[in-house]
Amino acid sequence: MKTSLKILVVLLFISSFSFGQDITKKIDSIINDSHQRNPNIGISVGFVQNNKEYYTTYGNLNAESQMKINKNSIFEIASITKILTSNLIAQAVIDHKLRIDDYIDDFLPKAYILHENLKNKIKISDLASHQSGLPDIDFGKLIELNPQQPVSSVTEKTLTSIINNCSELKDYGKYRYSTIGYTLLGQILEKVYGKSYDEIIRYKMIKPLQMTNTLTKDFNVKNRTIGHNPNGGIQEFFEWNITASAGLVKSNASDMVTFLKAVLNKETRIGKAAIMTEKVFYKDEKREMGLGTNIVTDEKNTIYLKTGDSMGQSSIICYNRAKNWGIIILIDQRNSKMRQDLLNQIYDTVLK
């Protein structure tokens, strides 16, 4: 009886190991095929399943370097930053600093003066699920003024002018992607903790998880990739400023897999916070939204995902809590179609 049990355990281990190898080989094959068709675009992919990590990378750090991209190479994760910010908001709930359905009125910096029509109207969850109805930063205009650093001119004065001059929420309760909403969430975190967003994300996330290659200020590091616009021209990394909590964190596949492992572990603080963000806060015929995350369901799976596009790079993070896997895809060119096609192909042929 004992011998039979030992044989069963060994067989199960071999089966699980082979299955894991099969998945990673298929993922590598998909990424390799994409790189063969797009040899000038660098790609870094991290995958975790049942706490086991796998990485595949293709391309060089830049055109002048022979150094290959690896799991530690730095990319712009852009709006994936919003998942980090929403997790910090959920951690603030755990810390009893706020409630997710609190109105934002008492949590904003004093420079903001809400119009009477807006008072006791907008909840923290509205900001985090993109349904606040607040006007947003005009990125088109900013790009025209400074295509390399479009957010460099955005200041607290810019934000207070937008908010204080708003007298009506034209589409409150309807989905409209919002950079200013996540900027306000960063400022709310600063108020409840009495620290800068930079200090908060370091204390609550970067240091506990030892995400040593996740950067918030100084991006001039040796293992940094070079960003490229859709035409292949060089694009600078966005600099840190007041909009940081909406999309300015830089990281790599290794650190983002570390984050995914914490998210998938419901016993960790970050995992407990992530579960809060996975609740449906908005739903229409096109989408379901949690806090900072898109929720996609089919007949067998529920996955949580977030995309990120800077002016020069594209990325996507995705995980399935029930099946205990997560994936991060980082591309050194602004190419949202490519990163979405890669995820779709991996999901449809390997993970579904």
UniProtKB/TrEMBL annotation:
Pfam family, one: Beta-lactamase
Keyword rRNA processing: no
Gene3D superfamilies per UniProt: DD-peptidase/beta-lactamase superfamily
Signal sequence, start to end: 1-20
UniProt keyword terms in alphabetical order: Hydrolase, Signal
Keyword Cell membrane: no
Recorded GO MF terms: hydrolase activity
InterPro entries: Beta-lactam-related (IPR001466), Beta-lactam/transpept-like (IPR012338), Beta-lactamase-like_AB/R (IPR051478)
Domain Beta-lactamase-related, first and last residues per copy: 39-339
Domain of life where this protein originates: Bacteria
Family: Belongs to the beta-lactamase family.
Protein name: Serine hydrolase
Species this chain originates from: Pedobacter ginsengisoli
